[in-house]
């Protein structure tokens, strides 16, 4: 991928066939607005330091190490070299252990996605694997040491290449039973259910990520721009949950309002235009911020 550095390079192996591959980050948060911690009194940035919890003295980096708590306030010291020695040795190979139906893995196990591309040599084997998986409608489960940990990866055909999604281990995924154990048993009124089904049917559509707006990011950009320009922020309308006695009325009203012809269909072009406006706003905010900083220095 032009302009992007591979996160990992190695081989993908199925049976006795191996192909050179490279792994690239598929999702990034680098374009999000970030904030620094500032001293209110001086307006200066605050630096993070490590302080001994008992002596309250500053601990320099060369005196910092890892520790595992074995009792309340008691630790065993773990040397960084011991941690490095415990990491499984990498053979730089994504070893495919099984091919499974694509729907077999619950997406609650999905961690991070990566693009998997051929790394110059072995392209024929890579294409054979990709096309074979696509025609068989299967995904692959593979294991490899990635980023200093043994990881299980779900590999699926994606466009001209493959997408590899690291998976959470079973012990990392919390049971849904605990999350839903306090859910009350409620028998929904037949009219409510029919109205809900009607609303759902009028709102059916297709998955198109290009039409999704990051409203939180847009709101942050609007806030930063307003602060720089000294403008007041618009007040947001408070959203309240429907009360049980108003629920049926709300459903009836929604069912009457939500018709396919009532609302214009949002297109990818509309979304791209919105994204362009967001980038322009962000650029203006950064430019104004830079000028303000220069003015402060000059004064």
Automatic annotation (TrEMBL):
Residues 253-299 are annotated as: Disordered. It comes from the Bacteria. Residues 56-185 form the Ku domain. One of its GO terms (biological process) is double-strand break repair via nonhomologous end joining. One of its GO terms (molecular function) is double-stranded DNA binding. Homodimer. Interacts with LigD. This is Non-homologous end joining protein Ku. The gene is ku.
